[in-house]
Amino acid sequence: MKKDEPPFTFPKTLEEFEYAFNEYGQLRHIKTGELFVFNAREDLHRWNQKRYEALGEIITQYVYELLEKKCNMTKAILPVDATEDEPTSFIYLSPDAMSNPSKLLVLIQGSGVVRAGQWARRLIINQDLDSGTQIPFITRAMEEGYGVMVLNPNENYLEVEKPAMSSPLPSATEPSDEPAEKRERKDDKEGKKKREFYEKYRNPQKETETEQIPIRENGSSEEHVLYVWDHFVSKAAAKNIFIMAHSYGGLSFVELMNQREMQVKNRVCAVALTDSAHNIWLQETSKSTQDWMQQHCCNWVSSPEPLDTPLDPMLPDCPQVSAGTERHELTSWVSFNTIFRFFSEVLEAKEDEESLPPLPLPPWS
């Protein structure tokens, strides 16, 4: 029996979803106390996915609120010289992010749907706020006297609805690099998928067509990190800058080094990476950058080994140690304490070195 696909209209708040975060930061159903259920309706995968995404959007706003209310952070709009009618993004700054004379921590997340303040949406929904958000890192950093900047590398464009108009049919003469045979197979496959879908539902919902307007100079994670370095990090007062980057954030950091090598070397004390996606060969990183990374970076990677067990790096860049978990998205949370210890030890060593009296000049100078 064919059924109608329900409309893609979902609650706009956690309360309307009938979910709330309990005292342990876990998302639970208000009435049953149960965990979030993805398959709310059997046999309606697309609808369930849309519902999950709608909840994800609410959680993004919830985390922004926590950054503002719990962490006392404020938004800085990007680009800094944005006009009134262009799309913008933002980062979050602690009150002393630009003025703290001593220490600044810069947090860079991985790629995907996550926005400022999140490591992994799946962890926030299925586990808790501590493991899935950057809030424990921000709170601990503030307690230890750091200024904090929270980057937003996935907010790259404004999505707007396309005006309704009949879409022109693709021209038959349009050239294609694919062999005809392969194209036909692909068309068959697509056609079969569509047929199955239409056979399943009597009235499938039509998805809104959208177009993306890129945010100037912030159209990708790499562009965003470079932009924030140029307009914020490099202008901050802190004598000691620390960076923590997860997954694709590590690749964006290495790209920053490729673009601003001397500046980064002069300002950054240490870099903690968690399951970083960087690749010094594919990114054509200079030998001098690789040497610097060897001295100043550490990558906590997913591994069955106990936390902090040294591992053989595949490439000659930075030391790798186990994050104490085999789950990619958990690497930041599980290595939380050890990352702060790493930063403290690097800073202590630097300060010890700076406090040493200068070496006496040899008598023949």
UniProtKB/TrEMBL annotation:
Start and end residues of each Arb2 domain: 10-307
Single Gene Ontology MF annotation: siRNA binding
Gene Ontology annotations for the cellular component aspect, listed alphabetically: nucleus
InterPro entries listed in its UniProt record: AB_hydrolase_fold, Arb2, Arb2_dom
Biased composition (Basic and acidic residues): 179-209
Pfam families: Arb2 (PF22749)
GO biological process entries: regulatory ncRNA-mediated heterochromatin formation
Region (Disordered): 164-214
Protein name in UniProt: ARB2 cotranscriptional regulator A
Organism encoding this protein: Sander lucioperca
The encoding gene: arb2a
